[in-house]
Write a structure and sequence with these properties.
The chain contains 8 helices and 7 strands, in the order αβββαβαβαββαααα. By secondary structure, the protein is an alpha+beta fold. The protein is globular. Keywords: Lyase, Metal-binding.
Length: 251
């Protein structure tokens, strides 16, 4: 899937300064979108790949409070974190380093996902959104903060090639090829956890109908602008969407 909203700004041959500015803005939009959706609070961060060697991460502040034009930080995929960058951004580094197809990463605190994880469970594929994580979301069974390269590498090794990894009592990491897909998949993860928690209350008498591998493969589609429509729904009204910026006086 190509980025529907920001692809042109970071196309090969684009002016490097303009490309960085556009990607930085895109990361802010994604960060605020995650916060508005209730998927992050005071804690969390998101990023997007700039090129083979670098990515841009949002400022180290609550994502919902990021201001228009508030710049993030360019971070090397290999090497120490720049000053002022949160320690758990190491998770982003390890994903970009090991998975060249990944273009965006978010570390968030989805509340239903968090609750389910304290049971040492991750969302099952019970409805459409859950199918995007088949054959199942891996669990990092340790509630401690990730403050070292060794911890970050272990979490991402647990994640493997899945779109997400859930950390017991400590939120989740979601990765995708584009910012739009990363935001949508983070919402899907939380909706899958919501459904799973609802079903658990009844499952002693009414066993859940978990989708099979073949059912998941058939359902986890991107056709019909599924990702784009979720992005449009979640990001609507952000002051730095391209349409909003173009309509501002003097733009």
């Amino acid at each position: 899937m190509k980025q529907a909203t920001f692809d042109a700004a970071v196309a090969p041959g684009a002016d490097p300064v303009s490309a960085l500015s556009a990607l930085d803005r895109a990361v802010r939009v994604a960060a605020r979108t995650l916060a508005r959706a209730g998927l992050a609070h005071a804690y969390g961060h998101c990023s997007a790949r700039l090129d083979a060697d670098r990515f841009v991460v949002c400022a180290a502040r609550p994502m919902g409070l990021l201001g228009v034009g508030e710049t993030g930080t360019v971070v090397p995929i290999d090497g120490p974190l720049p000053d002022g960058v949160l320690g758990e951004v190491r998770l982003h580094q390890h994903i970009y380093r090991s998975r060249p197809e990944i273009g965006a990463v978010a570390r968030t605190m989805p509340p239903k996902t968090m609750s389910l994880s304290t049971l040492r469970r991750t969302p099952r594929a019970l409805h459409g959104p859950g199918t995007y994580f088949a054959p199942g979301v891996p669990l990092w069974d340790d509630p401690q903060l990730i403050r070292s390269d060794e911890q970050a590498a272990a979490v991402i090794d647990t994640m493997g090639t899945n779109a997400a990894v859930v950390m017991r009592g400590n939120g989740a990491v979601v990765a995708a090829d584009t910012l739009e897909a990363m935001v949508a998949l983070t919402w899907y993860l939380e909706d899958a956890a919501r459904v799973d928690l609802d079903v658990l209350a009844l499952e002693a008498t009414l066993p859940a109908a978990v989708l099979s591998g073949d059912e998941c493969q058939a359902r986890a589609t991107r056709s019909g602008r599924i990702i784009e429509r979720m992005w449009e729904y979640l990001s609507a009204g952000d002051p730095e969407l391209p349409a909003a910026v173009a309509s501002q006086p003097g733009s």
